[in-house]
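Memo to structure team: turn this sequence into structure tokens by end of day. - J.P.
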Amino acid sequence: MTYFLGGIAFLIIGYFTYGKIVEKILGPDDRATPAVAAPDGVDCVPLPQWKNMLIQLLNIAGVGPVIGVIIGIKFGKIALLIIPVGCILMGAVHDFAGGMMSLREGGANLPKIVRKYLGSVYASAFSWVMVVLLLLVVAVFINIPANLINQTVLPSVSFFWWAVGIIFAYYIAATLFPVDKIIGRVYPVFGALLIVGSIAISAALVFAGFKNPSILDDCEGFAGFKNASPLFPCLFVTIACGIISGFHATQSPIVARTMTSERQARSTFFGMMVLEGIIAMIWAAAALAIYNIDSTNISLKEPVILGNITTHFLGAWMGGVTIFAIVVLAVTSGDTALRSARLSIAEMFTINQVNLARRVFTCVPLIAIVSALLWWSNLNGESFKKLWNYFAWGNQMLSATTLMAATVWLLRQGKKCASLVTLIPGIFMTMVIASFILWTPGTGNQPWGLVPGGLRLDCAVAVSAAVAVIFAIFVFLRGRAK
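Reply from structure team:
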């Protein structure tokens, strides 16, 4: 219980202290935002601050802070320490810096920002990697909510594809229509459901924890998972949302285009990441408790464990409402992922998006690719596992890139010492992702390694350290360029 409550306290204090320091470094001021300077009625539309905050929260809080931590807590209760520290020092800084760069570049998407600060060669490859990742996100965030509905609400095999069709149709509508027509109207309702469900789980968990503190101890059944998945680098890929997630940098431009003042940036970007960290802490602790209450849960699939958590702590009725809130989490990240993909493609090929016909033209190939991914990922369980794994480490490639681009941005403003707030986590995440993609456990069921057979973990970490140093030198040289 000390880890749980202490971690949440650290997150709240971090927002008011370290968040203020980062705000001073990034320097939001009174210059006109894209929604004020160049409204277009489609993507650049002024929205109230409270609505922007909820949109940002639901954009970034996919299933990661729930499903991801249900897996990630198997590293042990040390995860309850790493989540808050990582969230404040890395994730919230990442989101804040990414959002501020987009605000200053007229609501630019990540590929344009990367091109400006890391160069055209890097950006050319990165832009396509990012678009592919966004399409993987869309496919993953159609599959997961459809499976949750299928397994916990309507357990019928035939209904799964109906759920897929309904969710995908909503995604297409949300990405084609102006941001204030669908996203701006339904997100506040979804946000309220998410917050109510998380508060309910938190209250029930604290009550149960004080009655029986042992439910938040490490579970002996985690030993096998820990042996197969070393803490570094696996934890930082397994638990992305809640610690740091590159996907967030693709979502921040959506809200950067609807903000009316730069001074809203700390609460909107840094603050909503901190709130996501709190949500991750709640669900991580709830998963730890449910594993300790019944160790047979360790072998079950995550959607089943999620249902067991909600039923145990909240009962059937409130548990069902909370499951719906989790479905909302996935849906409200998948729709904006498709929207981000449309905006990124339009930016890369200079396709004006004010006209509906051009938006449809931009979306058609994206819809076709996502449809193919959905078909392939549901051929068998291994297909979806591969889809999820490549999404997981690709996501963290984005986080390292965003942090390094932000470092160049700060260096070019003459903020050499201050740039350490993005450079240090950028180096760390470069090491995480480089070591992760060079290492494989050799079991044959984890398809994320890029080296045949994989390197030994110590070799992978050594090589990744060299890669991180080279990347840092490259960033320093880019920062000195005029």
